[in-house]
Amino acid sequence: MQKQQTLQWPDYLVIGVVLAISGLIGLYYRFTGGRQKTVEEYFSANRSMNALPLAIALMVSFVSAITLLGISSENYVYGTQFAIFYLGAAIGTPLAMYLYLPVFFQLNTTSVYEYLERRFGVTTRLVTSVAIFVQLMLYTGVVLYAPSLALEATTGLSGTTSVLLIGLICTFYSTIGGIKAVLVTDVFQGFLMFASILTVLGIANEEIEGGLASVWRLANEGGRVNFFDFRLDPTVRHTWWGLLFGGACLFLSLYGVNQVQVQRLLTTKSLRSSQMALLLNLPFMLAFGLVTCYSGLALYAIYKDCDPTLSGSIDSPDKIMVFFVAERMSRLPGLPGLFVAGIFSASLSTISAMLNSLAAVALEDYVKPLCKIFRVEISDERRTLLGKGLAILNGVICLLLAFLAREMGSLVEVAMSISGAIGGPVLGVFSLGIFLENANEIGAVVGTITGLTLGLWATFGQPRPIDHGLPVSIDACNSTILSSTPAPTNQTQDYFYLYKISYVWYTPMGMQITMAIGILASFIASRVFRVKQRPLDPNLFTPCLAKRIRRRMENAEVIPSSQVFVLEADLKS
Fold first, then answer.
1. Phi, psi of 49 (to 5 degrees)
2. Closest CA to 295 of 198, 440, 362
3. Is 506 within the bounds of a domain?
4. pLDDT means per 10 residues in the chain (573 residues)?
5. Interior CA angle at 181 toward 179 and 184, to 5°?
6. Contact by Cβ (8 Å): 398, 362
7. Structural domain of 564
8. Domains in the chain: how many in total?
9. Which helix (H) or strand (E) holds 490?
10. The domain spanning residue 220 has which CATH number?
11. What angle do CA 204, 210, 215 make, to 5 degrees?
12. Residue 321 located in a structural domain
């Protein structure tokens, strides 16, 4: 791939201003208010956030450079099917709002994994916490790597330098400013992200004959409009059902039990305000996701007769949008800088949220229990300082992981595979606790480990089938190439079935396996090995089930000897 220097001084000025504003927000919150001296302020913003900015922050923390680059590439290469994934948000978000969120709001804790200790025991908490810690680390590495593609294509700046630049800036402002700086910066960065993608569409409108109105027709002619594949075969990369159920479970995992998002949702004063933020987040996220999908079709309309990957201009479809910026937008100084700033913003917002949450998990789930074991007393101010140190350490680890991300394949597949392989079992173990009274710690641990094992096996197992996407052409290119279509997938090789399952099924598969094995293991533990049921606290169950348990306790009904119900007041004492 030929690197080109396309950024001019107005572009660097735009990028510099964006990065400076992000850093200054961190400094502002370091030296105002309580100056981030308490754990409550540093990790929970003193429960002072309002619904609207929080809704934007929720959207921005989910949207990253993976969305801007990966989703546009996905629609360019494979067509419109991926848009159905966002319909899953309309199913997963309400379930998270009314079934999961009230439990964590009642719990009122920094780490969501404290729920698992209270419901099952410390072993379940540690197993799940370590799993999600690994997931966030890996995912953050991928997110950190993604914007280096933009800088490499538009400036010739090495990927290593790009990763270091973004990682250090993000670690700086998220460390010194706490979650409030992260949330406020997210709002600013959200506007930049919308501006960058709309700028791309604006320039594409001028480049396409007939403008954006002709994009759909050209995409249809090229076989890119392909929503309605209703096959139930899980080995097909994308189908209606796979994307709908996979998307629903992924969003349920994201907003229902994920430390990053739940920690943000707990920064409001009330459950109602938190639920309103989730509701407002939905249209923001859908709008950005669908606009990004459409941008991929617009890029196809421009390059349908001269594919940059086949012609050798770029070495990965994930760079198709930044190639467009470098080739078509560099004639307008400042616009490439705005796009790169949008890529930076998308990554900074996601990474900063994860660094803050990783620090919270490390402090609450690992450091705090160790202090209890060794009987070490730490003041609140020192705990906050320790949390900042952990944020810096996590930032360094994520920098190292970012250098491994370039070896892992397509941005969208890598990101969703990691999220599904670990997020699915985590959603499963939380669902065991929230919905099933008879689940116990042995069932929870065995189910989680089984789900994680199969999920990670499916994600990293080799060899696996390769899907080259829909046909593309280089007929209009001025380059010599042997073939105008990608090599067909090798259909004769016999792959292990688990490796053929589409990545969109990883989250529902992990959830179902964890719950099924968890229920079976809980039954065997209680009936065969006579493991006693932990006392049940109604506050640890979904609202409708909690009401039934309280009513049963109040009526003093006769219950099985394997269960012991105690009053809420007794539990708290």
1. -80, 145
2. 198
3. no
4. 63 84 72 59 67 85 76 92 92 95 88 91 92 83 74 68 74 65 75 87 89 90 90 93 95 91 87 94 91 93 91 84 86 84 74 75 83 81 78 77 66 82 95 95 96 93 84 77 45 80 95 97 92 87 94 68 43 41
5. 105
6. no
7. 535-573
8. 2
9. none
10. 1.20.1730.10
11. 60
12. yes
Report how far residue 323's alpha carbon sits from residue 309's, in angstroms, rounded to the nearest whole number. 10
- In this structure, how many other beta carbons lie within 10 angstroms of the beta carbon of residue 5? 11
Structure tokens given for 319: 């760079």
Distance between CA atoms of residues 71 and 74, nearest Å:
5
CA 150, chain centre distance (Å): 20
Last residue of a domain, one of 406, 429, 462: 406
Question: What's the pLDDT at 442?
Answer: 95
Q: How far apart are CA 194 and CA 188, in angstroms?
A: 11
Is residue 129 domain-resident?
yes
Q: What is the dihedral of CA 513, 517, 519, 521, to 10 degrees?
A: -170
Q: Residue 170 to residues 398, 399, 495: CA-CA distances in angstroms?
A: 11, 11, 41
Q: What is the pTM of this model?
A: 0.86
Last residue of a domain, one of 357, 374, 406: 406
pLDDT for 570:
44
Dihedral (C-alpha) 277, 279, 285, 286: value to the nearest 10 degrees? Answer: -170
DSSP string, 161-181: HHHHHHHHHHHHHHHHHHHHH
Asked if 346 contacts 63 with a C-beta cutoff of 8 angstroms, the reply is yes
142 in any annotated domain:
yes
- Residues contacting residue 553 through CB under 8 Å, at least 6 positions apart: 538, 565, 567
Contact (CB, 8 A) for 248 and 79: no
